[in-house]
Amino acid sequence: MNDEYDLIIVGAGILGCAAAVAFARQERKVLLIERDLSEPDRIVGELLQPGGVLALEKLGLAGCLENIDSISCHGYIVFRDGQYVHVPYPDRSDGQPGRGHTFHHGRFVMNLRKAAAAESNVTVYEGTANEIILCPITDCAIGVSCSKKGESEFTINFYAPLTIIADGCFSKFRRDFIPKQVTVKSNFVGFVMTDSQLPYQNHGHVVLGKISPILMYQISTEHTRVLVDIPGKLPSNGSGALKTKFYEALNTERLRSMPNSFLPPSTNVHGGLILLGDAMNMRHPLTGGGMTVAFNDVVMLSELLHPSQVPDFSDIELILSKMQTFHWRRKKLSTVINILAQALYMLFSAKDENLNILREGCFKYFQQGGRCVSDPCLRFYLFHKTSLKVLWSFTPPVPWHSIFSTGSRDIEPVRETTRYYGFHYFVLIANFYINYE
């Protein structure tokens, strides 16, 4: 096996495989390292939004959605207090209906790995990446030290001028190169129901409970995924305390958990090294935007590092300059998805009565239909419009002329209501902008 490449990618998951294909098709020699090439079994990464499907098409990997019994997803049904609202996906820019896909995560990853392995410029290596090799003079990354699966006592070094770390939410190398800390506010606990039909076919189902949201969606013709958000520290599964959360499927399905992590994005500033995917940026999976961000990041990065822009990956300063561009350019999509995911989760899991008011206003806003549900699927201004809806819904009606009457008693409830809920709203929004991007 050749021990020198143009690019080393650590992690053959969603992003790693897509990146391997993208750069291999630009005639870069790629080494793709994966600890375990058997089919992964996870309870997240099962819903790809329309924007992710479009990015997959741009990468020439749309075929990876085939032959895995995937289900076409047309939007969401949101339930609250016995009521529901339909939130369809908006049409694509080419006029075609917006369509997402749901599937077994492992099957999708295996198709991506097959696509990567089929590229003549990709070498797949099954083993553990133990260490990033740094140049003792420049401190730049120059390769990866690995041990082959089943032979942990032996190590082999691979060298390349550029290394991409894409080893996921439990990244082994994140702490060495990113100062920001991962925060976990809740966990998804999930199981699969067999041969259970949801109320609305080809839609994700979101149940807004009193404590936190519940998600349900088909991942195959036979299987339906159920995810329950458990705020705070996860109860013990072994003690049985967690089983009180569920009333069905407990006799046949094991309960599995996954932390809902948040990690704001960081600019890649270490020479010879790029962190991508969940290793660099995470948001609450409530909106299912993680894979969409990942695939779009690959599209954008492969364009910025195209041989016409960066002929040689040894040009460290040029790549660092491109990574600055990448950091700001990706915000046009990632900021919307990151903030929307965190904001919706905070809103729909809030115990604060003040945020309960915003939650009700948000649901009423959805119920207006039309652009009120089509546009906010992709645009953050949902919350700005929601605030006006909240103030309108919970402000006592007064004669319009009272607004201009300085001595009117009728206007005082308006002032107090606006001040009370408006203050909490704008504090919430300011908090998102300051902490999440």
What does this structure look like?
It is a single chain. The chain has 437 residues and is an alpha/beta fold. The protein folds into 2 domains: 7-181 and 263-335, FAD/NAD(P)-binding domain (3-Layer(bba) Sandwich); 351-436, no CATH class. The chain is 32% helix and 23% strand. It has helices at 14-24, 50-58, 105-117, 174-177, 290-304, 316-329, 331-348, 353-367, 371-374, 382-394, 411-436; strands at residues 7-10, 30-34, 47-48, 71-73, 75-80, 83-88, 100-102, 122-134, 141-148, 156-159, 162-165, 183-194, 204-208, 213-218, 223-231, 256-262, 273-275. A 7-stranded mixed sheet has the order 10-9-8-2-1-11-17. A 7-stranded mixed sheet has the order 6-5-13-14-15-12-16, with helices on one face. Strands 3-7-4 form a 3-stranded antiparallel sheet. The longest helix has 26 residues, at 411-436. The radius of gyration is 24 Å and the shape is globular. It starts with 6 loop residues before the first strand and ends with a helix.
In short:
The chain has 437 residues and is an alpha/beta fold. It is built from eleven helices and 17 strands. It has two domains: 7-181 and 263-335, FAD/NAD(P)-binding domain (3-Layer(bba) Sandwich), CATH 3.50.50; 351-436, no CATH class.
Count helical runs: 11
Number of structurally distinct domains: 2
| Mean pLDDT metric | 83
Radius of gyration: 24 Å
Give a quick account of the main beta sheet: strands, pairing sense, barrel closure.
7 strands, mixed
Q: Can you name the CATH architecture of the largest domain?
A: 3-Layer(bba) Sandwich
* Number of separate strands: 17
Fraction in beta strands = 15-25%
Taken in chain order, the helices and strands follow as EHEEHEEEEHEEEEHEEEEEEHHHHHHH
Q: Report the span from N to C terminus.
A: 42 Å
Fraction of helical residues:
25-40%
CATH class category label of the largest domain: Alpha Beta
The CATH homology group name of the largest domain: FAD/NAD(P)-binding domain
